[in-house]
């Protein structure tokens, strides 16, 4: 009986386990954005060359190990019905900075709207019906947040025209309206660049290319200079370092790390203490979570899609280190529902919930089975007599 109970328990546990754990496949040209302790991912190319509508987040309030894909607390939100697009860019906005706005990108749906809005509080998508002046469709853009809920969209690749334009559009995430900026002295048209908003409110546009060449990486900056590139990643640290990683240049996928000190506008090569052999990526995203740069997904130099998260410890200015263990900086306050002294700090909560659920079911089955067994014994004993 105990063995049977154990068997049922194990089945229930593995059932819960199988259905609770979501492990995303490799993808590229997706978007990512961090809101509180959730790192959201949307769209991209999956199972080359299909476009996905997958939408999910990584719960960075929990610890995990990147080399153990089952330990990574992914939460799938695809059921909410997000857009099926790639070559997109995402920025946060709204009154409380709890809205995700996904701009541009390529879709098979000809009616796909230019901007998609996800309310992270209500956990649902909201259709935006933009009236008036709306930017024409464009790919390979990078949005940048400005004050007062404004988001800037610059240039990009317009599939409907042979030429791209260097127009700057401003989206008001509070009123959900667009305006075409009259900013003077705009850079040349470009796509595949990265936009970074500096603390002084200026937006820095880095890299990218146009139909005839790549943008220089050192406009008004003396050497050394990273090689020209597009489809790379860029993050800004709180102490004013822009960290760029990887990208694509002509036929080469890159894996180098460069640091732009925005207090003196000088590039330097990022010294990685433990470089990962042959790690080259493009079409990935990078997001800063505390002192870690999360390099997520993308396409490796050997053309396979990455399903991995690479975490770079960026806490030091002079040296960088790949790490595989993530520990949230805040103390986890989990409501203790178990009477045992089991530690909550090492596994996916869904697995723990599954285990508790499994135990309860198992106990109930045990109780019923015990009663039945007792009854059977009773009868048996009666018959024996
Ligand atoms: C880390 O700590 C900072 C400041 O205490 C907080 O703003 C941030 O949300 C924390 N990050 C995570 C992932 O909990
Ligand atoms: C791409 O999607 C189509 C339609 O859903 C499917 O038939 C095809 O097998 C997919 N391709 C790959 C490589 O998964
Ligand atoms: C998770 O990792 C295991 C072991 O490395 C691997 O066999 C499996 O394919 C991975 N699962 C996914 C969905 O990537
Ligand atoms: C796109 O929208 C138009 C007008 O509303 C509609 O007629 C058409 O069927 C839609 N196409 C698709 C693929 O949904
Ligand atoms: C948004 O629009 C799509 C297509 O037009 C529709 O299928 C969907 O139900 C709408 N969603 C909401 C929340 O109105
Ligand atoms: C741009 O427009 C704003 C108001 O919309 C105006 O205040 C500003 O002077 C304009 N700048 C130029 C260079 O035209
Ligand atoms: C635009 O460029 C011209 C010529 O280089 C310069 O004189 C002017 O100050 C610039 N305008 C702004 C707003 O930076
Ligand atoms: C710009 O980048 C795209 C994508 O990598 C590429 O197809 C195109 O050839 C590039 N342009 C030049 C001039 O290299
Ligand atoms: C494209 O970029 C190259 C390199 O930065 C530049 O020389 C060229 O003028 C640009 N072409 C256009 C049409 O902007
Ligand atoms: C920018 O970098 C190029 C090489 O990519 C170099 O030829 C040029 O001198 C650099 N410009 C400055 C201002 O350092
Ligand atoms: C790195 O790439 C080279 C050249 O493609 C290959 O020979 C080597 O085996 C790779 N090393 C690893 C550890 O994958
Ligand atoms: C492609 O490169 C990545 C990163 O170096 C490596 O992990 C992966 O095994 C490679 N895949 C193939 C099929 O060579």
TrEMBL record:
The keyword Oxidoreductase does not apply. InterPro entries: Kelch-typ_b-propeller (IPR015915), Kelch_1 (IPR006652). The chain crosses the membrane at residues 351-374. Residues 1-20 form the signal peptide. This is Galactose oxidase. Coiled coil: none annotated. Keywords: Kelch repeat, Membrane, Repeat, Signal, Transmembrane, Transmembrane helix. It comes from the Eukaryota. SUPFAM superfamilies: Kelch motif. Pfam families: Kelch_1, Kelch_KLHDC2_KLHL20_DRC7.
């Amino acid at each position: 009986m105990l063995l049977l109970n154990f068997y049922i328990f194990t089945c229930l546990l593995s059932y819960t386990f199988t259905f609770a754990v979501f492990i995303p496949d490799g993808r590229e040209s997706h978007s990512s954005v961090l809101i509180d302790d959730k790192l959201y991912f949307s769209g991209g190319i999956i199972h080359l060359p299909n476009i996905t509508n997958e939408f999910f987040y990584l719960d960075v309030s929990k610890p995990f190990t990147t080399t153990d894909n089952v330990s990574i607390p992914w939460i799938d939100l695809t059921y909410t019905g997000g857009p099926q697009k790639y070559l997109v860019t995402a920025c946060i906005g709204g009154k409380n900075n709890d809205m995700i706005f996904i701009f541009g990108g390529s879709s098979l749906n000809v009616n796909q709207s230019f901007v998609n809005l996800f309310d992270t509080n209500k956990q649902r998508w909201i259709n935006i019906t933009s009236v008036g002046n709306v930017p024409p469709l464009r790919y390979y853009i990078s949005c940048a947040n400005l004050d007062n809920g404004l988001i800037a969209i610059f240039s990009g690749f317009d599939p409907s025209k042979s030429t791209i334009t260097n127009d700057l559009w401003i989206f008001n995430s509070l009123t959900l309206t667009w305006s075409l900026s009259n900013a003077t002295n705009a850079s040349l048209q470009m796509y595949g660049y990265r936009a970074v908003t500096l603390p002084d409110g200026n937006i820095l546009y880095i890299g990218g290319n146009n139909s005839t060449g790549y943008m220089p990486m050192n406009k008004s900056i003396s050497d050394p200079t990273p090689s020209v590139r597009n489809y790379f990643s860029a993050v800004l640290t709180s102490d004013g370092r822009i960290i760029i990683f990887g990208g694509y240049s002509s036929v080469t996928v890159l894996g180098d790390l460069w640091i732009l000190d925005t207090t003196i506008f000088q590039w330097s090569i990022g010294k990685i203490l433990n470089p990962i052999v042959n790690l080259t990526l493009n079409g990935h995203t990078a997001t800063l979570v505390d002192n870690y740069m999360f390099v997520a997904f993308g396409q490796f130099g050997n053309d396979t899609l990455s399903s991995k998260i690479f975490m770079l410890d960026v806490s030091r200015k002079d040296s960088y280190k790949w790490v595989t263990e993530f520990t949230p900086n805040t103390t986890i306050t989990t409501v203790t529902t178990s009477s045992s002294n089991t530690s909550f700090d090492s596994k996916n909560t869904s697995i723990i919930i599954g285990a508790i659920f499994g135990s309860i079911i198992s106990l109930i089955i045990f109780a019923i089975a015990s009663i039945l067994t007792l009854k059977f014994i009773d009868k048996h004993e009666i018959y024996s007599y």
